[in-house]
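Worked example

This section walks through a single chain of length 63. The input is the sequence exactly as stored; nothing has been trimmed or padded.
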Amino acid sequence: MDMTGARWRKSTRSNGGGGNCVEVADNLPGLVAVRDSKDPTGPVLAFPPTAWRSFLTHLPLHP
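Given that input, the structure is written out below as tokens.
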């Protein structure tokens, strides 16, 4: 999987304290990549954009 050009951003739900965070790159053609912010050279999960949108749609919202 080619991550060249990926622009990673932290989740807006991240706590900002360096804890459990994910980063998302959604600027790559045909896929959305997700990784652990504490391990930026570690494994990456890749999803088709439609699957990622479906996942986001079904997340519970917390105040």
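What to look for: The mean pLDDT is 86.
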